[in-house]
Amino acid sequence: MYDIIVEERENDVSCRIYINSSSSTRVVTIASYVTAASMGVDIYYTRIKDYQSEKSDAEKIIEIPVMPIKPQNKTHLDVINKINEENEFDSLKDLVVKGLNLDYGKGTNRNKYSRIVRELEDLGFVKTSKFSRAKKKIKLTESGKIMANISYLFHDN
């Protein structure tokens, strides 16, 4: 589904895309909803008058309201994309200095990016795992990888 939406958007950025969740399993409907929410497309359900007859006329088309799912700002996306490029970082310092090319120094960037990594972890985009007393590996979750792949939809890079 993701690939089809990306291909359509590459052909026509302003095209309106709909996902039909009618007659889908619960899992497919949930996946369709998450896709619609994260990619800014519409989802609908068609109620059929009689499923038993050969000719199934639509009784009603119901547009399902979708709450957008996206990172809070461009800085979040920058961090997600940098982690995606490198696969993982061995520490917050590596992310800030080697990944983002910023000064780690005393306080400012260290505190800012520590907070951002925590926020991204709370949102389910990043996973940290302590591997030594002072270091935490930082990597993307599956949701983070998907977000990195569709990040161009949310902010101009």
Description:
This protein is an alpha+beta fold and 157 residues long. The protein has two domains: 2-64, no CATH class; 74-153, Winged helix-like DNA-binding domain superfamily/Winged helix DNA-binding domain (Arc Repressor Mutant, subunit A), CATH 1.10.10.10. Helices cover 45% and strands 18% of the residues. It is built from six helices and six strands, in the order H-E-H-E-E-H-E-H-H-E-E-H. The chain has helices spanning 2-11, 26-39, 74-86, 92-99, 108-123, 142-150, and strands spanning 18-20, 42-48, 58-64, 88-89, 126-130, 136-140. The protein has a three-stranded mixed sheet. It has a three-stranded antiparallel sheet with strand order 4-6-5. The chain starts with a helix and ends in a 7-residue tail after the last helix. The model has no long low-confidence stretch (mean pLDDT 83).
Count, helices? 6
CATH architectural category of the largest domain: Orthogonal Bundle
Radius of gyration: 20 Å
Which percent range fits the helix content? Answer: 40-55%
Largest sheet: 3 strands, mixed
List strands and helices in order, with pairings.
Blueprint: H1 2-11, E1 18-20, H2 26-39, E2 42-48, E3 58-64, H3 74-86, E4 88-89, H4 92-99, H5 108-123, E5 126-130, E6 136-140, H6 142-150
Parallel strand pairs: 1-2
Antiparallel strand pairs: 2-3, 4-6, 5-6
Explain briefly what this protein structure is:
The chain is α+β, with helices and mostly antiparallel strands and 157 residues long.
